[in-house]
Amino acid sequence: MRRGPTATAACAALLLPAACGSTARPPDAAPTATAPPALVAQARPIGRGAKFQPPANGPVVGRCDQRLGPRDGTHVEVFAANRVMLVPAGIGTRPPRSFSSGRISTARCYGELVTLDPTGVVLVRPGSHPALADLFRAWGKPLSTRRLARFSASSSARVAVFVNGRRWRGSPSAVTLEPHSEIVLEVGPYVPPHRSYTFPPGR
């Protein structure tokens, strides 16, 4: 399955200073890759501070097993105020946790949905059908038509949700985390949503 890179990947892999909020390269610097206009339009920097990088502090959803077991992957991207909000590692797990290169390698137990790294990949137990409401509850952050974590939509707007590139017209909380789906949530300026995501092997 193919997708456009996330903002982080676009910044790191394609060296897009303007898109990533960095200063322009010196005149004598080596030429950089020319990115497709659509990719430039999708690139956003990661926001700074706790509002954009909120930790996981919600309860475990569903049965908490000692083993991770087989999982299906769903990808969730969150944009607020024209910046990337990181979906943290550790959602749906209980401490103590061990980390390796920023990724959770072991935890006391694993719930119905978990995140092991801050890439936005949510690992869901096969046969379960959690929704965004469950993800945000396990994250410990509010989600509604007007609220996205610590951000609120303007009086004339609402939280925008896209599933596989298509606008979702219902409640954000009702979106189910289907295997290999690409879910984008936005509050603030419009960000062109990715339509798909390339999942790691086995996810």
Top keywords for this entry?
203 residues, alpha+beta, seven-stranded mixed beta sheet, two-stranded antiparallel sheet, 4 helices, 11 strands, 25% strand, globular, disordered N terminus
Q: Based on DSSP secondary structure assignment, what is the total number of beta strands?
A: 11
How many strands, which pairing sense, and closed or not: the largest β-sheet?
Answer: 7 strands, mixed
**Helical stretch tally:** 4
Shape: globular
Briefly note the structural class of the backbone.
Answer: alpha+beta
Helix content: 10-25%
The arrangement of helices and strands along the chain is: HHHEEEEEEHEEEEE
Would you tell me the overall average pLDDT?
A: 85
Structure summary:
The protein has four helices and eleven strands; from the N terminus they run αααββββββαβββββ. The chain has 203 residues and is of the alpha+beta class. It is globular and about 45 Å long.
Can you walk through the features of this model?
With 203 residues, the protein is α+β, with helices and mostly antiparallel strands. Helix content is 13%, strand content 25%. It has helices at 7-14, 17-20, 37-42, 132-139; strands spanning 72-80, 83-85, 93-100, 103-110, 113-114, 121-124, 147-148, 151-152, 160-163, 166-168, 182-187. A hairpin with a 6-residue loop joins strand 5 (113-114) and strand 6 (121-124).
